[in-house]
Amino acid sequence: MKSILDVQNLSVSFAVYGGEVQAVRDVSFDVKEGEAVAIVGESGSGKSVTAQTIMRLIQTPPGKIKKGKVFLDGQDLMSLSEKEMQKVRGNKIGMIFQDPMTSLNPTMTVGKQIMEGLIQHQSLSGAKANERVLELLTLVGIPNPETRINQYPHQFSGGMRQRVMIAIALACTPALLIADEPTTALDVTIQAQILTLMKDLQEKTKTSIILITHDLGIVADICDRVIVMYAGQIVETGTKHEIFSNPQHPYTKGLLKSLPRLDQAKDEPLIPIFGTPPDLIKPPQGCGFCSRCDSAMRICETEIPEQTKISDTQSVRCWLQHPYAKEQGSDAGKEASA
Amino acid sequence: MIRYVLKKFMFMLMSLFFLITATFVLMNAVPGSPLQSEKATSEQIQKNLEAYYGLDKPLIVQYGVYLKNLVQGDLGISMKKKFQAVDKIIGDSFKYSLKLGLVSIVTSVVVGCILGIISAMYHRKFLDNFSMILAVIGLSIPSLVIAPVLQYLLAVKIEAFEVAGLNRPMDYVLPTIALSAASIAFIARLIRSTMIEVLNSDFIKTAKSKGLAGHLIVWRHALRNSMLPVVTFLGFLMANVITGSVVIEKIFAIPGLGKFFVESVSNRDYPLIMGITIFYAVILMISRLLADIAYVLVDPRIRISGGKAGK
C-alpha cells in the first residue's frame, strides 16, 4: 500500500530558559493509506509535539524544527511557506484536540465553525456549505442538526462537542486525520461512543488516522499499527498484535505490565515502571530508558541503540535485540560493551 | 430580559433617591449660601430673596418641595444665571459635551482596539513595544498637559487648527485627541493583555488547524472573545466622557456641562448643583445598563434574566 505520510528524521526543540528542550529526537515513521496508527507514550514523550509539527502548529520561536522532512503525498510540508501550509491544514490534514470544552470558540455558532473550513478550502456558497454542515452533523451522530447548527458550544455536552470537533476535522474530507488524545477529557462511556464513531467514520471515509494516546485500550480498539515513543524517540513500532503479544522493548513490556487486568485479584497491586523520564534539556548519551531499565547494560549508557528489525512490520531500538547481542548471547553482549 | 431591565430600573430609582437626599444634605451642610455676594444688600432685600427662593423655610420642607417639583419634572431655576431654568442650562451645554464625548468614545475604542490588536499580534516585537510605549505616554501625561501642547504646536505654530471653539468639524480634532489619549491607552493595554491570553487558547489552535489565515483568526475568533473587559470599561468611559471634561472644556473654551458643574458648586447654586448631579447619575446608570446589555451581544454564554436563574 502507498504511504500517505512519511516522516523522516524529524527533530524538534524548544528554547527555554537555560537551554533547549529536545522534545522530538530523530523520529521517522510512515502512515499508509487508510491505516490507523497509534502513537503511545507517557506525558512529555514528544507525541503531541510530533503531531503538531506535522501540522506546523508549534510556535516558532520558542519551538524550532531542527531537521527532518515530512512528506504528505510526496510534498515536503516542512519546506512550505505559511500561506501554502494554510492550504494543507484542514484541507488535507484534519486535527482533533484533547479538550472539547476549550477547543471550540465560545462566541461562534457551531455551524459557522464547521463551515469556516469548507468556505476556506472548497469555496462553497453559503447555502451549499450549510447543506454540507447538516450532512456532517448527521454523520457524526448529532441529533436535530437543523437546530443544533445555530447553537453555541456551551449548549453542547462534552461528548457532543467532540463530535463537532470531528465534524470540523473531517469537513473537507482530509486524507489524514490527526487525533491528539481525543478521548482523554471525556468520561468512559462517552469515550467508547467517540471511539466507535471514529472507527465507523474511518471505514466510511477511508481516511488515514494518527491517534495519539496514552491509553492502550483505545489502541487495541481502533488501530492497526502502534508506535511507542519515549523521551522524544520512537523506541518500538509494530502491528497491534506484535506490540501486544510480542513486545520487545523493556519500556513497552513495562507499559503492558502496568495495565490492570480483569483476571487480576482485587488486592493485587499494579506494577509501575519505577523512576522518571530523563530531562530532555540534557538528554542521556545512550538509551533514554536506560536509567529505568531492569536489564540495562553498560553500552546502553553510552550509545543510542540502532533500529533493529524484528519482522517486516516490527522494529525496536534496544541493545538487547541488536543482532550482535543475539549472536553473542546476552552475557557476551555485556562483555562486548565493556 | 425585560424583567431584568425593569428590575435594574427599580434599583436605579432607589439609588437615585439616596443620591438626591445625600447631595441635598451635603450641599446645605457646606457653609455659604447662593445669596451671599460681595455687594452689600440690606437685610430686607436678603430676607425677600430668601423668601422668594424658599430658603427661609426649614431644610426638611425645602427638601419636600424639591422632591415634589422633581417628580413633576421641574428641576427649578438657577439662582445665579438670571432666571434660567436648570433643565435648559443642562440641555444647552450638554449638546456640546455629548457631541465631543461621542466622537472621543468612538476614537478611543477604534484606535485603542487597533493598537491593542497590533500589540497582541506582534507580541514582544517592535510594533508591540512601540504601541505600548505610546500607551504608557498616553496614560501618564494628563490631558491638561497634552491639550496646551497640541494647541501650541498644531494651532499656534503650524496653524492647522483653531486654538479653541467647536464650530467646524475640524475643531473637534484637538479636543478629541486630548480627551481620548488616556482611554485609547487604557483600551489598548486592556485588549492587548486579553488578546494575548485568547490567542493562546485551544480554540485558536482549532482555527489554525482549519487552515485559516492569521488575520482571519484574529478578526473572527480572537477579537470578540477579547471584547468583554472593554465593554465593562466602556460603561464608565461613556458616563465620564459624555458628561464633559471640565479641564478640556476650559482649555478649548467649549461651553459644555463640565464647566457649569464646577461653577455651580463654587456659586452654591443649589438647584443647578442638584440638577447636574441627578443628570450625571442618570447618565452613569444608563451607561452601566447599556454595558450589561452589550455583554449579552458580545458573549452568547451570558444570559440576562430577572430571576434566580440568571448565570
Characterization of the model:
Chain B: Keywords: Cell membrane, Membrane, Transmembrane, Transmembrane helix, Transport. Chain B: It is a multi-pass membrane protein. Chain B: Residues 94-291 form the ABC transmembrane type-1 domain. The complex is a heterodimer of chains A (338) and B (311). Chain A has 338 residues and is α/β, with parallel strands linked by helices. Chain A has one domain: P-loop containing nucleotide triphosphate hydrolases (Rossmann fold, 3-Layer(aba) Sandwich). Chain A is built from twelve helices and twelve strands. Chain A has helices spanning 47-54, 82-88, 110-122, 126-139, 145-148, 158-170, 188-205, 216-222, 240-245, 250-257, 298-302, 323-337, and strands at 3-16, 19-32, 36-40, 63-72, 75-76, 93-96, 176-180, 208-213, 225-230, 233-239, 307-309, 315-317. In chain A, the strands form two sheets. An eight-stranded mixed beta sheet of chain A has the order 6-7-8-3-9-10-12-11, sandwiched between helices. A four-stranded antiparallel beta sheet of chain A has the order 2-1-4-5. In chain A, helix 3 packs parallel to helix 6 and helix 4 crosses helix 6 (158-170). In chain A, 46% of the residues are buried. Residues 332-338 of chain A have low confidence and may be disordered. Chain B has 311 residues and is an all-alpha fold. Chain B has one domain (1-311): Orthogonal Bundle (MetI-like fold), CATH 1.10.3720. Chain B is 73% helix and 0% strand. Chain B contains 13 helices and no strands. Chain B has helices spanning 2-29, 43-53, 59-71, 86-121, 126-140, 143-157, 173-199, 202-209, 214-226, 228-242, 246-251, 257-267, 270-298. Classes of the chains: A alpha/beta (338), B mainly alpha (311). Chains A and B meet through helix 2, helix 3 and helix 6 of A and helix 8 and helix 9 of B.
